[in-house]
Amino acid sequence: MLATVKAGDIMEVVWVSLVAGVFVTVAFSFVVLGMARSTEAARGGRGTAAIAYAAVALLAFGTFAAAVVFGVQIMLSKD
Fold first, then answer.
1. For residues 18 and 12, what is the distance between their CA atoms, to the nearest angstrom?
2. What is the DSSP track for 9-77?
3. Cα–Cα 20 to 30 A to 28, which of 9, 39, 56, 62?
4. 34 exposed, middle or buried (CB, 10 Å; 0-12, 13-18, 19+)?
5. CA distances in angstroms from 56 to 2, 12, 33, 78, listed in the order given
6. What pLDDT is recorded for position 49?
7. Contacts of 68 (CB under 8 A, 6+ apart)
8. Which of 9, 30, 28, 10 lies closest to 20, judged by CA?
9. DSSP 8
C-alpha cells in the first residue's frame, strides 16, 4: 500500500528546510565571527570593541540555540 503525498506539502517541507538551514548557518557564522573579532580586539587592546563583539557572539549563540531547540521540539511533537 502506497501513501499519497500532496505536492504542496513536499514544497512546504523544501522551502522551510532551506530557510531553516540558511538561518541556522548564518546564526552560527555570527557566533564564530563575533568570537574571532572579540579575541582579535582583546589582543589589540581594544576592550570596548572586544566586549561588543563578544555580545554579538552571545546574542547569535542564543539565537542559534533557540532555533535548534525549536527545530527539535517540532520534530518530536506529535500531531
1. 10
2. HHHHHHHHHHHHHHHHHHHHHHHHHHHHHHHHHHHTT-HHHHHHHHHHHHHHHHHHHHHHHHHHHHHH-
3. 9
4. buried
5. 49, 32, 9, 35
6. 97
7. 24
8. 28
9. H
* Count of alpha carbons within 13 angstroms of residue 73, beta-carbon side: 6
pLDDT value at residue 79: 65
- Predicted confidence at residue 5, as pLDDT, reads 81
pLDDT of residue 4: 83
Tens digits of residue pLDDT in 18-64: 999 999 999 999 999 999 999 999 999 999 999 999 999 999 999 99
C-alpha cell at 58: 552571545
Quick one: pLDDT at residue 6? 85
Q: Residue 7 belongs to what H/E stretch?
A: helix 7-43
